[in-house]
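Contributing new complexes? Match this layout with NAP.
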Amino acid sequence: MTTLGIIGSGNIGSAVARLAVAADINVVFANSRGPRSLTELVEELGPRASAGTVEQAARAGEVTLLSIPLTAYVHLPGGLLSGRIVVDTGNYYPYRDGRIAELDSEDLTTSELARRWLPGAQLVKAFNNILAHHIPQLARPAGAPDRTALPVAGDDPAAKSRAEQLIHRLGYDTVDAGTLSESWRFEPESGAYTRIYLSDPNTAAENMLQAPATPLPAAALRTTLQTSKRAKVAERTF
Ligand SMILES: NC(=O)c1ccc[n+]([C@@H]2O[C@H](COP(=O)([O-])OP(=O)(O)OC[C@H]3O[C@@H](n4cnc5c(N)ncnc54)[C@H](OP(=O)(O)O)[C@@H]3O)[C@@H](O)[C@H]2O)c1
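Output block (do not edit by hand):
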């Protein structure tokens, strides 16, 4: 891969972009405010980074990272991601997204709903279960003994495999967590969500944004995914 398109230049989008440029991958960013608002970030990341429209970011590379609030998905131009491999980092937070009946009822996982909203996109769920500030902390070169693993879910085996190749190059091992319908295993409040990467798993919720991370090998993640319990989404208050 030579170029990664990134829609969403916030916490997760910019953290993944930093790993990408370090791995000699070009990134094309887009956000909601347009390319000029991205000048500072692009300058900071150096010559491998550029800014464009969402259309330009969507078409920039073989894979597009989609890292925007869930409710913004429906505001993307129709058909934007059709036929594209999309790494979906989205999570459902009712305080931000409002209540979404299909998610509260647990009829759908967040990425299954995203797939309805983004027809034709080959969605792969990843990077949604790790805090943004842990992404640079835990990345390691291939073969490092303390590589951390991220779960990956998707319905299209070829798209999933392509996304896994990208994630490996960015500095992480991967564990296949199954289809999008099984991706609840690493959604908020499930067993394989962000806490699994904390040095101190008992860190108080209000301190999580500063808490340091610790590596999580693939075997441990696999076990955690298998024993994960589905969150009672309707009871979520944040
Ligand atoms: N933060 C975390 O640690 C974390 C961890 C795991 C998963 N996630 C999930 O990952 C997603 C992104 O989270 P984040 O924390 O990176 O969000 P964020 O910092 O709030 O950034 C959101 C980005 O989305 C862009 N955006 C919003 N609406 C858009 C639209 N219609 N078209 C194009 N771009 C749009 C924003 O652009 P503007 O700035 O121009 O508005 C901004 O660049 C969310 O679903 C979140 O739940 C976050």
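Reviewers usually confirm one structural detail per submission. For this one: The pocket of NAP is lined by residues 7-13, 30-33, 37, 54, 67-70, 72, 75-76, 89-91, 93, 128, 131-132 (CB under 6 Å).
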